[in-house]
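Now for our specimen.

. . .
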Amino acid sequence: MGKKPRVIAIEEHYYDRELRAHFAKHDVVDSPWIAERLDDLSNLRIKEMDEAGIDLQVLSHGAHAFHMFDPETAVRLAPGVNDRLHQAVERHPQRFAAFAALPTSDPKAAAAELERTVTKLGFKGAMVHGLTDGLFLDDKRFWPIFERAAALDVPIYLHPGSAPHHAVMDAYFKDYRKDFPLFHRSGWGYAIETGAQGIRLVLSGIFDKYPNLKIIMGHLGEGVPLLLWRIDSALSRSGKINFRKIFCEHFWITTSGFFSNPALRCCIEEMGIDRIIFSVDYPFMPNERAAKWIPNLPLGEEEKAKLLSGNVEKLLKL
């Protein structure tokens, strides 16, 4: 019997209390159970990690984040948010690591904050949420963030925002928003928008400009790997791009909130086991759902070890 692999989860959220206060008039979290856990970076969180057999969480701010702020406010608040997260990691360095929250509305300041958190605080990269000023992140004004990530050799994690673009909300989701409030979120809207973020980055040519750039997408890649054959067939037809090659060389995906064996096998067939990383999406997804899934993974021991910790240890240099 080989040594049991560590279990590392990398899309595990919290809310900074000072930042959250700026959203007091908004419906940030409608579940007291989730809200309690978003506020906790100590005893309750670690207790539930222990119960689920999770050794380490890489912490990231939830979807109400700096992409929703004006540049001046975002730049002013970001260092304090990241410093407080660093303090939480320092209190439990064997249990937590961190992704930075970046003021994307000021891309140059965001790049500088990324460098500060990586070089001074030991952060493992950054998580960015949704659109900024209604723009996808392939817009060249945001490229300084990706340039700095490539230079630092850390990944950028693309995560959904709190809601899709307002025009998409009106056209796609508003008819069912009241009866099915998760339709525009995890039920479908998040996958549409964040999947488009990833596809647009490939089409933009950014990976030619920064060949060391690494991108992570959660929720089994927001469905892109499940549609990879068709996307590649359509987009590569122009002769201008080999979509599959670029996607599989620069993207990693995680299992956050998506514990389906058939879907996992599909992703492995399309991308390879080395590109897939375990995550829970805590506390929006309870740890125990992932814990019950792990023993039934349709993988050999070597593949399971890569999924649970080996791949992310290599990517994040843990």
About this structure: The CA atoms of residues 129 and 161 lie 5 Å apart.
